[in-house]
Amino acid sequence: MLGTVRQKLLGQALQKILPVGSVLRSYSSAAKQMTVREALNSALDEEMSADPKVFLMGEEVGEYQGAYKISKGLLEKYGPERVLDTPITEAGFTGIGVGAAYYGLKPVVEFMTFNFSMQAIDHIINSAAKSNYMSAGQMSVPIVFRGPNGAAAGVGAQHSQCYAAWYASCPGLKVLSPYNSEDARGLLKAAIRDPDPVVFLENELLYGESFPVSDEVLDSSFCLPIGKAKIEREGKDVSITAFSKMVGHALKAAEILEKDGIDAEVINLRSIRPLDRSTINASVRKTNRLITVEEAFPQHGVGAEICASVVEESFAYLDAPVQRIAGADVPMPYAANLERMAVPQVEDIVRAAKRACYRSVPMAAAA
Amino acid sequence: MTFCLKNSRNIISKLKPKVGLLSLMKQSSDCCYSSCLNHSNHCNFLPVTATSPFVKQLKNPDSNSHKKGRFFVFERFESTTAEKQIASVPNGEDNQVLNFPGGKVIFSPEMRFLSESPSLHAHCYRVLDDNGQLIRHSNFIQVSEDIAVKMYSNMVTLQTLDTIFYEAQRQGRISFYVTTIGEEAINIASAAALTLDDFVFPQYREPGVLLWRGFTLQEFANQCFGNKADYGKGRQMPIHYGSNKHKYFTVSSTIATQIPHAVGAAYSLKMDKKDACAVTYFGDGGTSEGDFHAALNFAAVTEAPVIFICRNNGWAISTPTSDQFRSDGIAVRGQAYGVRSIRVDGNDVLAIYSAVHAARKMAVNEHRPILIEAVTYRVGHHSTSDDSTKYRPADEIEWWRMARDPVTRFRKWIESNGWWSSEAESQLRSSIRNQLLQAIQLAEKVEKPPVKDLFTDVYDDLPPNLREQEKLLRETINRHPKDYPADVPL
């Protein structure tokens, strides 16, 4: 429930229902829980409050409180001029957002899912990404495109594709993908403040998940740097890179691997473009083995880029070929059993890590 | 619930055009709605109660079967005062009106389709006749001698600029060029009617707007030659001009993408409560793009102060308008989206000036979008990569170039006012020509942008990977200096 924060003060259990957007500071060292949805909502709220140029636009973001309730309460607080419910035209509202950005405003454009962004992709690439370069700095585009990306649960082929690789291949764009609530808050604030166009890839299944957040994260000036990956779990035997939901899978895989004596290092990429090549390479130079994990289609994916980067910069350090774990090379099927087989599971990551460590394991999952 | 039509006759579209008063721009058409009683998904009804007239009518279908209702009557309005007339309700029991989201609709037992093309096309506003003389009773905004002469000089400059740069491309001195021949009136007169606070979102055939705003011939030449002084730092093909200080957004090759941009900027101007509007230009072909439709729809919904100027010049490269659309041109599309529109003679300076002037006032004061369809002809080829004689008759092109030249037409008017002479004409033309030749010579000699401009402006700050690439590039240049081109400064 949005706005609800449970707080424990020195052993005293306190439950409060708070108005949207405000977050209680804690004066103890106990961690608070915050869902990714609350994190995104609070980040939007704080940035809109701090800068009157920031405004939100998209389908259902206003009266409906957001298709996934990310923008809950914002229409009420900021009014219809700053929270715009748009007609159903991705090409239209993306173009309009870019026009507003050319003028000097800071739009946050929401796509109901990034699958629908394909209808607006010309504006994202040709109008937003390239304008600063083509106009030689006269037209900057401080815009953020955000929305759920990748597979949800049982939504089929046209609602499940991951677009990280598509957008990350284009110079002029920055592409971010948060995993937990801290990522969501810090990266969204950084994206809104950034003068360049940013594609912000969220994940529908993560919206409802709760993560602990520190005081620092809850502060309204909190911001994460763009282009820096985070080592979620340190290890010395194998490096596993992942972003968004797959970070959770990688962490679970690491726990399983630990029991088998393999100490995995999990890298949460956070930023797909610019890719934090130095962190990835430093990790590979330490562990000598690399698994890349992503939900997306395998060909020309993020894993392919990471593999190329490591081969170019740390070839001599590799003790095993780089393993890429990706989604199946098929449009996402709807049936639950097939969907499960089309998306990487924790077991796939575990097996890949063992292969990288030259343990004998079967290549494919048992049916 | 079904409603049976008593008479099964051929349903053909019935249009009774109503000829309104021939004022500035009046057009009326009878619009009929098909009987939607039996299609509940046709319109969104509010819940119907047992006592509503709708139900009553259904229960007594016979009583209404041969009554003919009269429905929405739309009348076009004058340029500055808009009068909306709600449908006249006929006598009799046929005045069943129901509220539904969007407004009142009068029902009718007769099934009538709206015609796909009205028998009367939208009228075209003009002030000067083909000989540059004022048409009697023409309604227009007076222009002073200064403005008129300035407009004319700019049109001549634009024409000369085009001729000389086109030649320069043919000589291989620039790689590409797009002329505006035949559309000088649209360019200059519209620019003159706007203010310098208005934001311009061009397609690519509107350099005249930039010229009017003070872009110099040297600045035009610098961009075409892609030299160090080019504001675009040599990153774009010729004619992709852009200048922040003139509020002229850099030309982008993609068609019609500038139209929603303009709406976004207009919305921002409204939010900032500025006394300015956004203006965007596009051709007849550009109106087929999805962006055009989304933008007009959006502009109407958000009440954005934006002027859409369509240069309907008959051709989209080799596609004539008959292959581009089947509507009555572009002006009627505005109406479909709830945007006030007008059709204007695009080769008539005074008509364009008046229409844009009026449009701007409405856009800024009433926060509404306006669509202007300027009917004209693309005398030149689409670009230097095109030879239009391959798809259209050469004598058609010649006729428009000579008999319908907007520059000559306006010249006749200013001469008849005693504001111009043939001496002034030859003086102006030779002066402009000399300036242009000098500008080209100079632009050709200026060195190209430095190699560092390959990497800047991709992002706000130079990212580490590009910094590294530049470093590697410079190292390579140092190692192999004789392989590096002489005219690219380091």
Automatic annotation (TrEMBL), chain A:
Quick check: keyword Metal-binding in the entry?
A: yes
Reported EC number(s) for this entry are 1.2.4.1
SUPFAM superfamilies listed in its UniProt record:
Thiamin diphosphate-binding fold (THDP-binding), TK C-terminal domain-like
Molecular function terms in GO for this entry?
metal ion binding; pyruvate dehydrogenase (acetyl-transferring) activity
Locations listed in the record = Mitochondrion matrix
Q: What keyword terms does UniProt attach to this protein?
A: Metal-binding, Mitochondrion, Oxidoreductase, Potassium, Pyruvate, Thiamine pyrophosphate, Transit peptide
The reactions it catalyses are: N(6)-[(R)-lipoyl]-L-lysyl-[protein] + pyruvate + H(+) = N(6)-[(R)-S(8)-acetyldihydrolipoyl]-L-lysyl-[protein] + CO2
The lineage's top-level taxon is Eukaryota
Query: Which PANTHER family does the UniProt entry name for this protein?
Result: DEHYDROGENASE RELATED, PYRUVATE DEHYDROGENASE E1 COMPONENT SUBUNIT BETA-1, MITOCHONDRIAL
According to its UniProt entry, the function of this protein is described as: The pyruvate dehydrogenase complex catalyzes the overall conversion of pyruvate to acetyl-CoA and CO(2). It contains multiple copies of three enzymatic components: pyruvate dehydrogenase (E1), dihydrolipoamide acetyltransferase (E2) and lipoamide dehydrogenase (E3).
The name this protein carries in UniProt is: Pyruvate dehydrogenase E1 component subunit beta
Source organism:
Durio zibethinus (Durian)
This protein's gene is called: LOC111282390
Automatic annotation (TrEMBL), chain B:
Q: What class of enzyme is it?
A: oxidoreductase
Q: What is this protein called?
A: 3-methyl-2-oxobutanoate dehydrogenase (2-methylpropanoyl-transferring)
What are the alphabetically sorted keywords of the record? Answer: Metal-binding, Mitochondrion, Oxidoreductase, Potassium, Transit peptide
- UniProt xrefs under Gene3D superfamilies: 3.40.50.970
Tell me where it mainly resides: mitochondrion
Q: Which cofactor does it need?
A: thiamine diphosphate
What family does the database annotate? Belongs to the BCKDHA family.
Q: Name one GO biological process term.
A: branched-chain amino acid catabolic process
Query: Catalysed reaction per UniProt?
Result: N(6)-[(R)-lipoyl]-L-lysyl-[protein] + 3-methyl-2-oxobutanoate + H(+) = N(6)-[(R)-S(8)-2-methylpropanoyldihydrolipoyl]-L-lysyl-[protein] + CO2
Domain Dehydrogenase E1 component, first and last residues per copy: 154-451
Xref: SUPFAM superfamilies: Thiamin diphosphate-binding fold (THDP-binding)
| InterPro entries documented for this protein | Alpha-ketoacid_DH_E1_comp, DH_E1, THDP-binding
Q: What is the lineage of its organism?
A: Eukaryota, Viridiplantae, Streptophyta, Embryophyta, Tracheophyta
**Where in or outside the cell?**
Mitochondrion matrix
Which one Pfam family would you cite for this protein? E1_dh
Q: Which GO terms describe its cellular component?
A: mitochondrial matrix
Which molecular-function annotations from GO does this UniProt entry contain? branched-chain 2-oxo acid dehydrogenase activity; metal ion binding
* Subunit field text: Heterotetramer of alpha and beta chains.
Q: What is its EC number?
A: 1.2.4.4
